[in-house]
Amino acid sequence: MRFDEAYSGNVFIGASTDLEKASTVIYGMPMDWTVSFRPGSRFGPKRVREVSLVLEEYSPYLRRELTDGTYYDAGDIPLAFGNPEKSIAQIGEFVARVLEQKKIPLGIGGEHLVTWPVVREVYKQYPDLAIIHLDAHADLRTDYEGEEYSHATPLRKIAELIGEENVYQFGIRSGTKEEFEYAEQGGIHFHPFEVLSPLQKALPQLAGRRVYVTVDIDVLDPAYAPGTGTQEPGGISSRELIASIHAIAGSDVQVVGADLVEVAPAYDQSDQTAIVAAKVIREMLIGFFR
């Protein structure tokens, strides 16, 4: 699949039309085949792009513009509707081509299962990979009601692939007893409930390392992000999430890929969830991949 075959018609603000010069490729993963409560995150990538037009291309936090770097928006990957296993394979194939061209992948979900095939491909390139995971949910189940391909399982799959000691989780406030015990006893760097303070303390441990960053929008309290499939009260503010992205951007880690997932526009007619997601992606593009 060529990048132009994935194109869906609308692009994130500031996107370049020159793939060859771009250092980063942004792409959508419109999949919600395994959600356990409310579907709709497959419409997230398109809406996040659309509302990105409300933003400025300049970040007053980082004092840089999107045009200070170059990224290409490849649109949404055309996935096999309702087929998780085939969709996972299609995402992996697409990301492998991004990496073959020496580009950095930045994905928009879609449910959180989409992170699994991306990290699997990035790990092939960088076997010293660590992951920073910001989320309300642990996503550490081995299966969900007998189904191993579930939005509740991607971090368990990733931990078993790259090693539990290379997984850093923040903001977790929901999961089974077994998930919390696995996280706390299995070697994961597990920081429930809070994000910014423990993240700032953990980043020096990752200095010089290659890192993949995955953000589930439900790490935010529903007051800030109601447009998601599985809301979980007690989360952080949008201001703290943006500050957390800046903390990573200002550290000595090398971000080699990232994603933001679980925006479900139908549950937020105001678009505040999609807008905060677009702003976080803007800060990622400017801060991580300059």
From TrEMBL:
One Gene Ontology term of the molecular function aspect: agmatinase activity
Signal sequence segment: none
Cofactor: how and how many bound: Binds 2 manganese ions per subunit.
PROSITE patterns cross-referenced by the UniProt entry: ARGINASE_1, ARGINASE_2
Keywords: Hydrolase, Manganese, Metal-binding
InterPro entries: Agmatinase-rel (IPR005925), Ureohydrolase (IPR006035), Ureohydrolase_dom_sf (IPR023696), Ureohydrolase_Mn_BS (IPR020855)
Cofactor: Mn(2+)
Amino acids binding Mn(2+): 112, 135, 137, 139, 216, 218
Entry annotated with the keyword Lipoprotein: no
GO BP terms: putrescine biosynthetic process from arginine, via agmatine
Family: Belongs to the arginase family. Agmatinase subfamily.
Protein name: Agmatinase
Source organism (scientific name): Marininema halotolerans
